[in-house]
Structure formats: structure tokens, C-alpha cells
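okkk here we go again. third time trying to get the flavin-adenine dinucleotide bound version out, last two times i messed up the smiles copy paste (missing a bracket lol). double checked this time i swear
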Amino acid sequence: MDLNLLPEEEAYRQQVRAWLAHNLPKVMAERRAGKISGIEWSKKWQRMLYEAGYLALAWPKAYGGQELDPMRQFIVNDELARARAPGVIGAQAINLLGPTLLTFGTEEQKRRYLPPMLRAEEIWCQGYSEPGAGSDLASLRTRAELKGDHFVVNGQKVWTSRSRYADRMFALVRTDPAAPKHRGISYLLIDMKSPGITVRPLVQMTGDRGFSEVFFDNVRVPRENLVGELNDGWRVANDTLYNERNLGGAAEGNKQVFNRLLELARNMKRGGTALIKQPLFRQRLVDYQITVEAMRLHNLRLLTDTIHKRPRGVESLVNKLVGSELTYEMTKTALEMEGNYAPLLKGEERAPDRGYWPMNLMVGMGLMIGGGTSQIQKNIIAQRGLKMPKGPD
Ligand SMILES: Cc1cc2nc3c(=O)[nH]c(=O)nc-3n(C[C@H](O)[C@H](O)[C@H](O)COP(=O)(O)OP(=O)(O)OC[C@H]3O[C@@H](n4cnc5c(N)ncnc54)[C@H](O)[C@@H]3O)c2cc1C
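finally!!
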């Protein structure tokens, strides 16, 4: 098997790399200068990437894409991670909702929502989780009653990332309370400026207000904002969830974290010896490197499946499960290497590695939960992939 890029793909990689080398330092300097808000800066960065032709490369041209093969997007994502470029503010929409709309959306919905999503003109949030409906998502209770040409929505969502400044939400609502729980759900696109919506930010342990509670009080949503069929939202929702767990960039992201850990192990000393030379850490570093490489190969296999349009299985969940747990494990090792000063955060004088690792630990815990916890990924892989029996409830 030849895992090398074709000459034209390699040339494309060099082109992306050169673009990033030219543009990234300038935009990062602009961010540090702080003349525009973080959100405005993130929108601008996304627009730059889009205008350079590096977003949604495989989407149809009619909706803002370029109809290129998925390999191109893979190369771009790889280069972005390699350059440690910041993520785009519309990533959740582009990676999760976008492909779902391409599959289940009406022509009108695709034309209306996809191009502004790419240009960061409309920011989306995901309204799935509720108090009492996280892992057991199908227990959700936010109610939407169809009244003529619109739905009336009442209820509450929680942990809704970006809802503080989002323009729209893709949400799961219960449209038939009498039906079995997976069958009475619908998938709605909701304008966050609608009367009756209240957003109450929650403070995370990082100090950020990245997610919020969202309350709906008689919120009117036009019927044409229904994606897929009425009461068939579970099928649509699972398509979005699949996209959420199929983290194509996870392998390269993990490699970057690994490289940073390696750097730390070279620089930190104990008893006059660099930690990279000490068997305890050395052994762990080797284990991490093996997993990073296995993930890279696994991703190439998934990419091949996508290119050949093979049916999707649970293989992609491995990305989410292993990727998030590996980052967390590497981060814990980094903190161990840093010793007593490890908890110091960015901005504190003695913080090793500019306080990167303790922040990464807090963010990393969230990554093992958001989009479905590690335990849930293991259940799905065991039951659907390995055909193991379901355990007692
Ligand atoms: C950073 C972050 C961002 C998020 N962003 C969003 C967002 O934008 N939109 C959104 O809708 N949601 C979002 N979430 C919510 C996320 O999807 C839920 O937190 C997640 O699905 C878990 O649900 P829960 O918090 O209710 O935990 P619970 O479901 O109550 O789980 C509690 C614990 O029990 C375990 N558990 C539960 N059921 C089982 C089982 N059957 N087998 C084994 N173990 C089980 C879980 O693994 C977990 O350890 C976000 C979460 C985080 C951390």
C-alpha cells in the first residue's frame, strides 16, 4: 500500500502550507493586538480561509463548495493542525450541520443556510442536550407543537456551546409525546433572535463562558424550518452526531500535542537529567507515539472509505474516543513532568510552558464529554461494531 500523496496532492499541500506561512503570523498578530473582539476576529479568520478556498472543499458549488475530492480537505485540515492554526468559529456548523443539510435539507434550506454558514455571516449552536437528556438524548422533553404553519417551542436546553452569540440553533424537539421516545422527535432550525428565547451563560472551570442554558417560552418557528420529516428527527440527529464524532483532524491535533510534550521532556530536567532520558517518561512517550501513528493510519483508512463512498460504521467513533483520551493522558504526563509549578496558568511568572498544560487539562476533560462521553462511545463500539451483548440497564 502506498501512503504517499500523489505529486499534484503534494503540490497542493505545499500551496496550503505557503498560504498559512504567509497569512497566519499576520492574523495572529492582529489577534494579539486586540483591536477587534475575539468573535469578530474569529469570523474574519474563517472568511479568510473560505475566500482562500480552504473550507467545505467537497461541497457542491451551488452551496459554496468546490466539488473537490475529500482528500483535498484532509490535506487542508492536516496543514491547519500542523501550523497550530486556530479553529474556525463556524466549525460546528460546517462539520456537523452542513453535511446533514446536504443529505436531509430541502433545496431552499441548502441555498438559504449553507453559504452564509461558510462566510461566518451566521453562527450556529447545537441544541441537543437538556437537563435529564445528555447520554440518554432521546429522553429530551423540549416540546414543539405544530400549529398551522409554525411550531410553538417550550422547554430548555443546556451546555449549548456558542449560544451566547449564535444567530441560529439546530435543535431536537419533541413533536409527538405519545410515540416511543425515539420516534416522536423532530429536527428544527431556530432563529436565536426569536421572541421567547433566553440565554443564560454558564461559567466553566477554565473561566470561559463557552456554553449556556437556553430557555424557550412559546417560541414560534416556521414549519419550513423542519429538517427531514416530522417525527423522524432521530435519524437526522444521528447523522449530525456521526459527523461530530468523526473528527478528521484529531490525528494531526494529537500529533501536535505529542510534539509539544516531547519538547517539554527535552527541556525539563530532574537530577540533572532531561526527562526524555528517564525510563519512566521515555516508555510513556513511546506508547503515545505508537497511538498517534495508529490514529494517523486509521484516519487514512476512514478517508479511503469516504472516497469510495463505503457505508459508515462505528470506526469513526474511535477517533473521538482515542483522540480525546490520548490528549488527556498526554496532558496529565506533561503536568507530572512540570512538577510543583504545573498548576500555574498563563500570565503567571513561573508558569512552565506558558501555562499551556493546566488549561489543556481542563479543556481536555470537556472533550471526553462533549459530543457523547467516552463511556457512550465504548458502548456503541462494543454493541454495534463488535456485536457484544447490551449490559443490564
Ligand atoms: C465542553 C462541552 C461542550 C458541549 N457542547 C454542547 C453543545 O453545544 N450542544 C449540546 O447539545 N450539548 C453540548 N454538550 C453536552 C454534552 O453532549 C453532554 O454533556 C454529554 O452528552 C453527556 O451528557 P450529561 O452531561 O447529561 O451526562 P450524563 O448523561 O448524565 O452522564 C453522566 C455520566 O454517566 C455516564 N453514563 C451515562 N449513561 C451511561 C451508559 N448508558 N453507560 C455507561 N456510562 C453512562 C456518562 O458517561 C458520564 O460519565 C457539551 C458538553 C461539554 C463538556
